[in-house]
Amino acid sequence: MSDSSPLNHAARIVAAVSSELPADAALRRYLGKSRKLGPRERRSVSAAVFAYFRWIRWLDPKASGQKQLEEALSIGERFNRDPRSIKPEALAALAVPPWLADEMKLSVEFLRQLQREPVLWLRARPGTAARLAADLGNCAMTPLAPDALRYNGTTDLFLTPQFQAGAFEIQDLASQLVGHIAAPAPGQSWWDACAGEGGKTLHLADLLQNRGVVWASDRSVRRLEVLKRRAARARIFNYRTAHWGLEIDRIRPAPGRSARPPFKTKFDGVLVDAPCSGVGTWRRNPHARWTSSHEDVRELSAIQAELLRTAAESVRPGGSLLYAVCTLTRSETTEVASSFSADHPQFEPLAPVLSGTPLERSAEFQGASVFFLPDALDANGMFIAVWRRKKS
Questions:
Q1: pTM for this one?
Q2: Domains detected in the chain
Q3: N or C: which terminal CB in the chain sees fewer CB atoms within 10 Å?
Q4: Angle at 356 between CA 116 and CA 317, to 5 degrees
């Protein structure tokens, strides 16, 4: 096997992965330094690395790194040809950590979806999906979201003139649904309390049609700088940023920041896209399933509850509050939402109106809250709860 073969590159990346350097970060770092690798080689290396963590508990730990990667790819190919080749009992025992069964129902459909390679979803600017699909090629539209495209090609999208011109964002379908359920009206003001690198901020700003404003805050200054670069590329200007948030490792303000909301104003809508265990993204990031613990889930649920309670103070009477997490554990979803409703009678739970829409079959309601499951969407999993602050 050549020293420059994809499996050797992948083996070096896997060897570098640690608790401090997750697989996706190790992959980005390695490929960033490997200028001679072409697009096809990069895809092969990435596929091998993620296949390794997807099938790691089926592999012989005594075998060489290259042999384990080769076996992982072989198991994945066999599974893709015939998902029934892997028994449901084996998937439940080996595809996810044991603690997950205490937090959610492990359906066969969910487990099989976790073991498939992820779909790449794009979000076109409002009303331009059909034209973008024609320009890019290898795209399929979906009735589940008006601007979403499933990309099936192999082109490096970051190098396309359409991306450079801000014609689309790479954003998972489940993440796009958060913006559509929020449904901000032109002229409103919104706060994206945990904005990260700004995917949902930019979507909200687009939906406001440049009439209204979105405030974006995050505990990471670096992420907010990425948001600004993305907004500049898309020529979106109806947003503002503020450094704010809670430390993830304990419930306290980020250094130099107050636990109170960063604004005195009240908003028509507040989105709390809280940090979470990310179970809904484990198909895309299989290494994460082996770095998350049940203790992490319990700690994150406390952070989520505090973020939701604090952000709710900034919702004006009649305004909307959304809680969204890309996880499916009870501790971080229905338990957080139920506890908030019990403690805040001034907020009325609202179920998203999905009846009669294409999304109805992809949604699973629990009370007024909704789950979008990966096997129903062919995308990430997402939990969304919505409240309206009573005018009285």
A1: 0.94
A2: 6-86 (no CATH), 120-170 (3.30.70), 173-389 (3.40.50.150)
A3: C
A4: 100
